[in-house]
């Protein structure tokens, strides 16, 4: 089953920059698709279009067969978890409140939310007793990144979009978090697009690698085994 489908997508920003050109690919259910390529080749723009943070100039993006530009944004937030590097935590909200963002949108009660926050903090190795009441500025870069992952997983979304999710994490903890990611992904069967500039990370974590070239064009689709053999 195809979960995400891009059909001849083009994105030109208002200043004329063409970020993505004629891009078509699809992601099957339970698959981890890596999107790799040099800086500026349109990887983030692609994720942002899938998440409806940016509208394509032309072409279509379908989620479960439905055009995302015609989908209610709250319904999209429930179906798509989004993890980005460095940014994205609300600075004036505690860790707990950050993780509870989407549960809040969906009207979960306090008890259910509390329990889920606590479970997620354990999952990313930051126990609630220490971390729940902290603000983002009271965390290290790697800790913030882990909170970003916890927040994206809050409502068990069937789709996860990850933009350089391990970039800000200390090297020794990165492996641990990658392994955790693999475990969670296999357990939950989440469908993932993983953006990374690290081809080894892509090869280790994905089922299929899509390589973009400058100008946001599809260069090739590679198998992780072929990349690892190099
Ligand atoms: P990547 O994630 O692969 O680094 P991006 O999708 O961030 O690439 O950017 C693709 C291209 O679009 C780059 O040339 C970038 O400068 C440009 N770009 C990104 N966002 C904007 C914007 N809001 N306005 C104009 N150009 C943008
Ligand atoms: P890093 O080496 O990743 O930059 P930091 O030096 O920022 O880490 O933080 C080290 C530890 O101190 C982390 O466990 C972080 O949670 C904690 N910490 C950082 N800033 C604060 C703060 N303002 N209040 C409480 N704890 C903090």
UniProtKB/TrEMBL annotation:
<comment type="similarity">
    <text>Belongs to the ABC transporter superfamily.</text>
</comment>
<protein>
    <recommendedName>
        <fullName>ABC-type quaternary amine transporter</fullName>
        <ecNumber>7.6.2.9</ecNumber>
    </recommendedName>
</protein>
<dbReference type="GO" id="GO:0016887">
    <property type="term" value="F:ATP hydrolysis activity"/>
</dbReference>
<feature type="domain" description="ABC transporter">
    <location>
        <begin position="4"/>
        <end position="230"/>
    </location>
</feature>
<keyword id="KW-0813">Transport</keyword>
<dbReference type="GO" id="GO:0015418">
    <property type="term" value="F:ABC-type quaternary ammonium compound transporting activity"/>
</dbReference>
<keyword id="KW-0067">ATP-binding</keyword>
<keyword id="KW-0547">Nucleotide-binding</keyword>
<keyword id="KW-0129">CBS domain</keyword>
<dbReference type="GO" id="GO:0005524">
    <property type="term" value="F:ATP binding"/>
</dbReference>
